Amino acid sequence: MTWDSQGPATPQDPRATGPYQPPPGQMPPPGYPPAGGQMPPPPPGYGPPQGDPWAQQPPPPVPGGPADPWGAPAPMWQPPPAFPLAPDAYPVNVSYDREASINRAWGIPVIGQLIRFVMLIPHFIVMMLIGIVAAIQVLVAWIPVLILGRFPGWGYRWIGGLLGYNLRVTAYLLLMTPTYPPFSLSGDDHPVSVRFDEGVRINRLWGIPIIGQLVRAILLIPHFIVLWLLAILAVILMWFVWAPVLFLGRQADLIYTLVGGLYRWQLRVSAYLLLMVDRYPPFTLGEDDPRL
Questions:
Q1: What is the pLDDT of residues 192-239, one digit of tens each?
Q2: Torsion of CA 125, 128, 130, 136, to 10 degrees
Q3: Dihedral angle, C-alpha 181, 182, 186, 191, nearest 10 °
Q4: Distances in Å between the alpha carbon of 97 and those of 211, 253, 256?
């Protein structure tokens, strides 16, 4: 405070005398020019309004990472389907892991498959017991088709599950997979994958007792003839399934294509005969969805 002839003088306005020097750790009042023409760095914990260049921007969310610390949870990454199905894929399919490595000791002629056969005896007993239940269900599975136009869910689990179970056991016996089949009707995570599309619509007329399946059996006669001819070739190849395993440590693509394709074809024909699908099975050994 200073005195002059008029009395006490007011404090001088720092804006009239030059740049304002704020105390350490404080920001200049609004309207004061910064010292040196630049704004001093913000103190720790200072939160300027939105749009200020000092404001910290939230980092972009990392897929599959932890929740966003700024409030919004980060979206979790979801892997794409391993095998996207084609729009017109047949509702019954079998796929094999063609690149699976198999211990060469299993390729010893006769001995390798004989040991596998002995190891599969418990499966044969279990499949026989499940077959009794599945056979009873086959006798009444036409009722939901006739009334609802759909094959029952329990039919897919038991009848379809038994068909897939039998195929996985056969594939293990023929050295087409290194993985011992599980005691399960679903066979999840097994290299031999069996798929049934449940809930497909089926014309109710196929559910007429006896007549529906009899007509389907007549329609399948061309398939029976072709499958019988292919089975002769497959039986010949089955005598040599040990050779690729013994020399290469894996099964040959020819076995997967012909023998494995034959079982895929038979499964589709069986599913059509048992009213599990409505589409007539294709005349092909291969798959009609992009898994190959």
A1: 999 999 888 999 999 999 999 999 999 999 999 999 999 999 999 999
A2: -160
A3: -40
A4: 39, 10, 9
Q: Is residue 213 within 8 Å of 273, Cβ to Cβ?
A: yes
Distances (CA, A) of 184 to 36, 71, 212: 79, 45, 31
Sequence-ordered list of residues with C-beta below 8 angstroms from that of 127, at least 6 positions apart, any chain: 162, 165, 166, 169
Model confidence, pTM: 0.69
Segments of the chain with pLDDT less than 70: 1-87, 288-292
Q: Write down the domain spans for the chain.
A: 92-273
Q: Could you tell me how many residues make up the chain?
A: 292
CA distance 217 to 205: 15
* Encoded tokens for 210: 């006896």
Residues 6+ apart with CB under 8 A from 209: 142, 146
Q: What is the pLDDT of residue 26?
A: 64
- Given this model, what pLDDT does residue 252 score? 94
| pLDDT given at position 83 | 46
Query: Residue 150: beta bridge partners?
Result: 201
Tokens of 78: 């979801």
